[in-house]
Amino acid sequence: MSRPLCPRCQRPLTHCLCALIPDIDSRTRVLILQHPSETTHALNTARLAALGLRNAQLCVGEVFDDLAQWLEQPGYRPCLLFPGDEAQVLTVPAKTDTPLLLVVPDGTWRKARKLLHLNPILAALPRVRLSAVGASRYRLRKAPEAGALSTIEAIVEALQVLEAPSTFEALLRPFDALIEGQIAAMGEETFLRNHGHRQA
């Protein structure tokens, strides 16, 4: 028998995170394209990011028929947050620059690349990437490479650059609580056995 879920954060009611989710405005618009396989994942950080940002939209799918329409937001310049040789490092914009519509694919690297393959408009967008980033706080997943972040962490890092000196750290409060809750549920001994060696 499944446990009742909070309709907003989709967590079990006994572990609802809504009280920790902030309500933050941003000049940057964030469009999160989530692969369907991520929606039922216990650590669904993209949903937390979308709930905490007023100027964010979360769309789930593999092929997005309305993508061209979503990208044509008046007053925004669309770009894709995705690493690669052609990706420009995000820098603090000039106050006169057009705000970005930051498109963020959400899924494993393989699933994210599949989204780009299935949506040529997405693959054609100018790409941006983060500069050097610290270690991920996502202690329950093995990062495929150094500097790999969860979706919510990548969004926070990007907004910290684009909207400095504003801070978006509050977005990570429910994320941290989610991680701590998962560790508590599995037990400290199990966590250390399976994940402890990944700690710095």
From TrEMBL:
Residues 2-187 form the DTW domain. It comes from the Bacteria. Its EC number is 2.5.1.25. InterPro entries: DTW (IPR005636), DTWD2/TAPT (IPR039262). Keywords: S-adenosyl-L-methionine, Transferase, tRNA processing. SMART domains: DTW. Belongs to the TDD superfamily. DTWD2 family. This is tRNA-uridine aminocarboxypropyltransferase. It comes from Pseudomonas cuatrocienegasensis. The lineage of its organism: Bacteria, Pseudomonadati, Pseudomonadota, Gammaproteobacteria, Pseudomonadales.
